[in-house]
Specification:
Strand content: 15-25%
Helix content: 25-40%
Shape: flat
Strand order of the largest sheet: 10-9-11-1-12
Number of strands: 12
Radius of gyration: 21 Å
């Protein structure tokens, strides 16, 4: 068994994820191990969470599990206003690691609430980012609608002349564009972004996957099952002609996937650290990879300022 490996240049952790990880690590240095709590997973990646746990971070799913007066970090996905209020009532020291791209959407959602507009959020119900965005609307909850399909648009009943829409940052660019087209066709005066709120890193990674899928028989994507952007990469690869698999690391790779193939593509979701990609490449080299070629454009990642609470 021998095959070539095509590695997407635009891959792996994005600026928002890097900021969230660095925030937790610096908070641990400042306040000490087992004294820093993180609400939900800081980022949706199994290995990142386990690494931070080993360093002393305590992950919780509810603020009730956090002792009064403790340090609490909100994840890159963001939280609703009610979570901020509850944390303040518990006198927690809040460190907000929400991705600045998501924060920008929160500001617009909060404004829509104050203006009593109908608000439409294009995204997956129950996803932490969507919950945080919806939680920025402090008006009548009946005015907030979470949709994801054309059928959802068909069933919408809102005031199109006093409405606003936003999108989850990690959606499929192509599918989101279609839903927005349907939404604007039904409500021409609805306010929102010119295209969508999908972050630049997500767009570039999806473009790279399209290119990768067209030249690969199989595409392996490093990313955890609960990572929205990683799942979208898999869907994009499948839609562009390659059989795609989402793997946490090389331990999830079934060698049967690689039998009778000549080209294997490799990429990583925006929550997956680079050392996992390297580990996968090493596994492939031990099991038949003869050539490693990087393809696509290299995204020049910008960096976001750290929360003031952890800056040196």
């Amino acid at each position: 068994m021998s095959f070539s490996v095509y590695l997407a240049k635009s891959r792996g952790t994005c600026a928002g994820v890097n900021r969230a990880i660095a925030t937790v690590e610096l908070a641990l240095e400042k306040y000490g191990a087992h004294k820093v709590y993180v609400l939900h997973e800081g980022v949706h990646n199994k290995h990142v969470v386990e690494d931070l746990k080993l360093k002393g971070a305590i992950f919780v799913e509810d603020l009730d599990a956090v002792p009064n007066g403790s340090v609490i970090i909100f994840s890159a996905h963001g939280v609703g206003q009610d979570t901020f209020f509850k944390a303040e009532q518990k006198q927690l020291q809040i460190i907000d690691a929400t991705c600045p791209v998501v924060t920008g959407i929160h500001i617009k959602m909060n404004r829509a609430s104050k203006e009593q507009k109908d608000a439409v959020v294009i995204g997956h119900k129950g996803h932490q980012e969507v919950l945080g965005t919806v939680g920025q609307y402090l008006g009548d909850p009946k005015k907030v609608h979470v949709i994801i399909t054309k059928e959802d648009v068909d069933s919408l009943a809102i005031d199109g002349n006093n409405s606003f829409f936003a999108t989850q940052t990690t959606l499929s660019v192509d599918e989101t564009a279609q839903v927005i087209k349907e939404l604007r066709a039904k409500y021409p005066n609805i306010q929102g972004p010119k295209e969508d709120d999908t972050c630049r890193a997500t767009q570039v990674r999806q473009d790279a996957i399209k290119q990768l899928a067209k030249i690969s028989d199989v595409v392996l994507i490093a990313g955890s099952k609960n990572s929205s952007n990683s799942n979208r990469l898999k869907e994009v690869a499948d839609a562009n002609g390659a059989k795609a698999y989402l793997v946490d690391d090389s331990g999830d790779i079934d060698l049967k996937w690689l039998s009778d193939v000549s080209k294997v593509g490799v990429s990583a979701g925006a929550s997956a650290p680079e050392y996992i990609v390297k580990e996968i490449i090493e596994f492939l080299q031990k099991n038949g990879a003869t050539v490693i070629v990087e393809v696509g454009s290299d995204l020049k990642e910008k960096s976001f300022p750290l929360p003031k609470e952890v800056r040196p």
